[in-house]
């Protein structure tokens, strides 16, 4: 399909929206976080811990592990049902880690049929529904988990992520707050709640949460990036750049943060530096569709017609390959 290069000029007018797409796709988090705001970030799964926690744009991964203790009996008769539940639970975790979500659901359901009070199985089944984009069902599972285990911090955190994903910001804030009440050092919950406040334009509350995350961990790249996103949205570009650069001092290999710096420089009309940032982001992540898109706009602004066309076509190609519907919809918006 011939989209026409003239579309780029019209899209420039929507640059703020573009920047939000490119910086908050997460999940790398809320905005994905992080590649969510990113993005919501995911926990690494081990045999004895809960299936992945999800944090966009987006919010960050919880490093805590949780061991499911198994009852034992010398006769074996009482322990057998619990042991069977544990086997199904562990198999569900393995399936989840392999992204075989339907099998994971089956295993967790089997575990719960054997042991209906296995709160972690409800939590993990909720994570599986989350991964499938079935947020309402995920919320139902998390609520059952905390009903069985009222101090289940991680389930409240996951509940918040599901509420955020479904657009229920108030519900997300309530869940993240409950997680923080149970664990005052839960950095990821502060970051995610802060992202909710950003979405509500409650900027001071967001800053307070991000500052708390930094107080708990002065090297939290997620908190610095979140503050950068916030200041960018507020058009406080110098402060946005300062926080992105602080994040990159901690870890210079962050394509989203590098791309975000490019967005700031473009907003400041420093096209040369913006071009360098977008190119660096692409080096770090060669399939970074949003960075190609932003670079195409920058080339166009600088009069580099052929380079702009090449990047624009690359954007279309990558967005189609990745099923990036948000970017594809933006690219295909009719002109005039």
On the 0 to 100 scale, the average pLDDT is 80
* Computed structural class: mainly alpha
For the secondary structure, the number of strands is 0
Roughly what fraction of the amino acids lie in strands?
A: under 5%
Rg, Cα atoms, Å: 22 Å
Q: Segments where pLDDT lies below 50 for 5+ residues?
A: 1-79
Enumerate how many helices there are, as a single number: 17
Biggest sheet record: none
What is the helical fraction, as a range of percent? Answer: 55-70%
End-to-end separation in angstroms reads: 18 Å
Secondary-structure element string: HHHHHHHHHHHHHHHHH
Indicate the overall shape: globular
Describe it.
It contains 17 helices and no strands. The protein has helices spanning 6-12, 15-24, 79-97, 101-114, 119-131, 135-148, 153-166, 169-182, 187-199, 203-216, 221-233, 237-250, 255-267, 271-284, 289-301, 305-322, 325-331. The chain is mainly α and 336 residues long.
């Amino acid at each position: 399909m011939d989209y026409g290069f003239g579309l780029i000029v019209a899209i420039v007018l929507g640059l703020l929206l573009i920047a939000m797409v490119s910086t908050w796709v997460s999940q790398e988090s809320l905005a994905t976080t992080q590649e969510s705001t990113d993005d919501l970030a995911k926990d690494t799964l081990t045999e004895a811990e809960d299936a992945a926690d999800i944090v966009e744009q987006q919010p960050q991964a919880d490093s805590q592990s949780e061991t499911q203790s198994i009852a034992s009996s010398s006769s074996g008769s009482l322990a057998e049902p619990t042991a069977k539940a544990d086997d199904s639970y562990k198999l569900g975790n393995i399936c989840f880690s392999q992204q075989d979500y339907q099998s994971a659901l089956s295993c967790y359901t089997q575990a719960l049929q054997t042991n209906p009070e296995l709160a972690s199985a409800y939590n993990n089944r909720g994570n599986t529904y989350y991964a499938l984009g079935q947020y309402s069902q995920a919320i139902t599972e998390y609520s059952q988990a905390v009903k069985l285990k009222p101090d289940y911090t991680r389930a409240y955190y996951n509940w918040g992520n599901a509420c955020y994903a479904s657009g229920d910001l108030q519900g997300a804030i309530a869940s993240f707050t409950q997680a923080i009440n149970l664990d005052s050092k839960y950095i990821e919950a502060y970051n995610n709640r802060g992202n909710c406040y950003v979405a509500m334009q409650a900027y001071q509350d967001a800053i307070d949460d991000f500052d708390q995350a930094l107080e708990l961990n002065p090297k939290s790249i997620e908190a610095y990036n979140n503050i950068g996103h916030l200041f960018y949205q507020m058009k406080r570009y110098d402060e946005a750049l300062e926080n992105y650069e602080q994040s990159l001092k901690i870890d210079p290999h962050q394509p989203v943060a590098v791309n975000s710096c490019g967005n700031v420089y473009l907003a400041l009309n420093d096209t040369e530096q913006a071009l360098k940032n977008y190119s660096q982001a692409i080096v770090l992540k060669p399939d970074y569709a949003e960075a190609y898109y932003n670079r195409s706009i920058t080339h166009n602004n600088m009069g580099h017609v052929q380079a702009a066309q090449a990047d624009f076509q690359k954007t279309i190609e990558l967005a189609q390959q990745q099923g990036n519907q948000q970017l594809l919809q933006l690219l295909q918006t009719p002109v005039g």
